[in-house]
Amino acid sequence: MIRVGQGFDVHRLVLGKPCIIGGVHIEHTHGLEGHSDADVLLHAICDALLGSIGKGDIGQHFPDTNPAIKGINSREILRSVISILQKEKYEIVNIDCTVICENPKISPHTKKMIKYISEDCQCSESQINIKATTTERMGSLGRGEGIAAQAVCIVTTV
Length: 158
Prior knowledge:
Strand content: 25-35%
Distance between the termini: 9 Å
Largest sheet: 5 strands, mixed
Oligomer: single chain
């Protein structure tokens, strides 16, 4: 069986927080605000994977009301989602992602992001694709108020 999932996430940029996207710490004047490390890319991937197998979203599995997971590394969340996929007897065919922001520049970091994501997803780097785009300075993302990401995945039964 082949199943498709999609995910979307957005977080506000704020002073005093690290900017972590795709598991990579990126030098930037601002970082992403959230209950976890606010990694928009990994959150979008997690939601796509969970959606593909009908298991809700990361908010159900990692609620922001749980103080025990405050500041959790999103790579841990992704590895947990992969465990759910494996338990349900699914494996990743591919994941395609887009990060949406004016700054920081994403392309210098995509190779490292792909490496981390493929490690955490236990799949080949060739199964992961990451793109970046801007909103041409339109809207809140265009003004640099936040960063968004979307992901689409295909999974298949083992």
